[in-house]
Design brief:
The complex is a heterodimer.
Chain A (H helix, E strand, L loop, with lengths): L3 E3 L11 E2 L1 E4 L3 E5 L16 H18 L7 E8 L2 H16 L4 E7 L10 E8 L10 E4 L11 E5 L2 E5 L17 H18 L7 E8 L2 H7 L1 H8 L5 E6 L2 E2 L6 E9 L1
Parallel strand pairs in A: 2-6, 5-6, 11-12
Antiparallel strand pairs in A: 1-3, 4-7, 4-9, 5-7, 8-9, 10-14, 11-14
Helix pairs in contact in A: 1-2
Chain B lengths: L2 E4 L10 E2 L1 E4 L4 E7 L14 H18 L7 E8 L5 H12 L3 E8 L10 E8 L1
Classes of the chains: A alpha+beta, B alpha/beta.
Chain lengths: ~260, ~130
């Protein structure tokens, strides 16, 4: 636990609630899934951005507490919104309430759609944890609440080495695109590529800590990809985020998946 | 560098970047999404993606330098743009900053960034 805030400070960043950079000695790190404004029954809370944001941070707090952390320990946050005006009007204030004076590194994106079309905000975090990793399993995957999804809400990395994969797309080794217009084939190819890279790094699908899936159409992804994804992870899921965006690097790409993993 | 590069013939990058990097030591640095703000907090290059990309990548370098590193310490970058048509100009500015191979990389076209004038945002993770 040795947090350093990196001050390449610009006047405009003051008072905006985030730091340009935050570094830590990565002895124990928590990655959360993207959390949203769902209630205990899994339904989106009513009332729009403010209640959704409040509920999102309440759920994140439960995950942090489960790992023995507080919002002060957050290193990085990624905020996805579908309505920027609503976020600026009322969402940002909900974020400020939980963080107080602490500032994490931050990225904010306006995306086309989240898991539910009415969802206005999703937030994920990387958190520096106290305590030594010795004697603990490399990965501790946990849920702070019951949910039906194929993912864990939090994954703690105890020591080991973090592995950052480039965003994976459905490309063949010769550079051609596999499964043009075919969601299932692209899902298969992307996970095949992820599998090859994990293997080359001495890791397995179960080594995945966090997964971010960027798709051009969430409904098409849901109709085609879940069996492929389930077969790949075989129950040993990472924390994950699913986001719909308008484009990827090539028009043929329907999906891109980023994975962070850890090896001993 | 306190990280190593992972490569495999079975899954190759589609452009000039690394498929994966593995941290082997040092400190883990998370860098906020950088946009085309100058030191005074003014937007550089309104409507000019080339100028914005240059400034955003220079700002990324600035944070790395403030942490005692430079672009070669980056393990992973994610570049967000608001229109795919802007990708060639962004790629050119990015190549100028990195000179050699990029780190592990992701490019995403988002609906918008946190101000309507922003055309590019780039974030990174580094080992310093």
């Amino acid at each position: 636990m040795d947090r350093r805030e990196v001050l390449a400070e610009r006047p405009v960043e003051k008072g905006r609630g985030f730091m340009p950079g935050v570094s830590v000695n990565p002895s124990r790190v928590l990655f959360t899934a993207g959390l949203t404004g769902r209630d205990a029954a899994g339904n989106l809370v009513a009332g729009g951005m403010a209640p959704q944001a409040q509920r999102t941070f309440e759920r994140l707090q439960a995950i942090l507490e489960r790992a023995g952390a507080r919002f002060d320990d957050v290193v990085k946050q990624l905020v996805y919104v579908t309505d920027l005006d609503a976020y600026n009007a009322v969402g940002r204030a909900e974020r400020a309430k939980v963080f107080g004076p602490t500032r994490a590194a931050s990225t904010g994106l306006v995306v086309r759609r989240l898991a539910d079309p009415a969802m206005l905000i999703e937030v994920e975090m990387v958190v520096d944890l106290q305590g030594a990793p010795q004697g603990k399993p490399l990965l501790e995957k946990f849920n702070a609440e019951n949910h039906p999804g194929d993912f864990y809400q939090g994954v703690i990395v105890n020591g080991g080495r973090l592995l950052y994969l480039a965003g994976q797309v459905a490309n063949n080794p010769d550079g051609s695109v596999a499964g043009v217009g075919d969601w299932k084939r692209q899902a298969e190819k992307v996970y095949e590529n992820i599998g090859h890279i994990l293997k080359a790094a001495g890791a397995t699908p179960g080594s995945a800590v966090k997964e971010t899936t960027w798709v051009l159409d969430i409904e098409s992804w849901r109709r085609n990809a879940p069996p492929v994804r389930r077969a790949f992870y075989n129950g040993d899921y990472p924390a994950s985020t699913l986001v719909e965006i308008p484009g990827l690097a090539r028009p043929e790409f329907l999906v891109e998946i980023e994975v962070i993993a850890a090896v001993a | 560098m306190p990280f190593s590069t992972i490569a495999t013939p079975e899954a190759k990058p589609v452009a000039n970047y690394k498929m994966a990097t593995r941290m082997e030591g040092g400190r883990l640095l998370y860098i906020s999404g950088q946009v085309a703000w100058d030191a005074g907090g003014n937007l550089v290059g309104k409507g000019d993606v080339r100028a914005q990309a240059r400034q955003a990548f220079e700002n990324l370098r600035g944070v790395l330098q403030a942490a005692g590193g430079d672009v070669q310490n980056l393990m992973k970058i994610t570049t967000y743009i608001t229109a795919i048509e802007n990708f060639p100009a962004v790629a050119e500015a990015r190549t100028a900053v990195f000179s050699g191979e990029l780190p592990a990389s992701t490019l995403i076209v988002v609906k918008a960034l946190f101000h309507p004038d922003f055309l590019i945002e780039v974030e990174g993770v580094a080992a310093v």
